């Protein structure tokens, strides 16, 4: 049922959390297509070989999830809440082991991984409580002999495709509202980081979540599994977190079924520092926002705009602080930045830096790969950034901080909004009028004011423009997995 990779298993208090088979309908399943390797990006060694499912196996999992969902939907909200609460308790109890698994496959520092486990568990706790709050309505009738009621019902089978940068939290953020609503759920985790999802399945089983309700299908055939999710009519909802390019493909494929989709896609977050800001606070916020997960998040600062009056002071202070960050294996103590996910990510950063240098940008810190194995890249600061450079329109996804100089409020708002993306944005200012004007003018689904951290299960997370559709988190998040039904009764 569960094979163990010796080195990683030895680090765990509960080695049974290290699963290497897919989890379908309460069973651990081998893959028709054999197995694929999972590597530690810090060392490059294989830490597990995971079941590689075929498209037909995933189709079978969908059918089983559809059958199981009917009974789950009949459970009361309180019953579903109790099961989710047990899942939350187990995730919290096993936080250290879950974080170790996450760091081994994804690379982020262990302390940061522990934070992700707590963040993911927070969604399970929150939506356990929301399961009891799915309300209907009685509306004024249009005739004396009619009564109008509106109820909310689970949409059915929900499928999710999740990324490698948050292998626990992105599944929890989708699965928790789906299960709370009464849906069954099938997760296809990223091929680089399937072990965190499988560990969640181990705990879901222990929590008493019924067979077929939470499923994890592991596969190296990302395109084929995506097609099955999109084209299988039994999948009534698809949730995807990943690039805008892939999101467009999935939306086109899902359109054949007129399938309900939520998309959390790419970002190009501006981080604006006005001349009335607390510069030291802005520096700390920029470090948290830019270098968390080695810059590999969709809400990381992509473009740092600093008003010309404080530009030099900000750059000096930011450079001094970033120079203190320690890069290394996420399992080692005291590490601030782990590796990038693979060599392709390193090469993308090198391309961005080469492009910027050709166009007049100056690297004042970092800029070259670290002298170590794996896919490491040092925290890098580049000044003289301009809007014709690649990173002005593309998502960086790495620890590169380009700094742009701007003159006034109108100019920076125009620059910040000059992108197809609209996920997260940030700015630092003290003037109350400016705070109000800028917050309303920025074309983004999320605005952080005087803070570099904006993610919480209590707030609706999502973007506008080509950064996505729908919202995750908060009481709005459960609506993505519910259908409204209007009932007209003649009396």
UniProtKB/TrEMBL annotation:
InterPro entries for the chain: Ald_DH/histidinol_DH (IPR016161), Ald_DH_C (IPR016163), Ald_DH_CS_CYS (IPR016160), Ald_DH_CS_GLU (IPR029510), Ald_DH_N (IPR016162), Aldehyde_DH_dom (IPR015590), Aldehyde_DH_Superfamily (IPR050740), Succ_semiAld_DH (IPR010102)
Oxidoreductase found in the keyword field: yes
Domain called Aldehyde dehydrogenase: residue spans: 28-487
Record carries keyword Oxidoreductase: yes
Cited Pfam families: Aldedh
Keywords: Oxidation, Oxidoreductase
Active site: 264
Molecular functions per Gene Ontology: succinate-semialdehyde dehydrogenase (NAD+) activity
Protein name: Succinate-semialdehyde dehydrogenase / glutarate-semialdehyde dehydrogenase
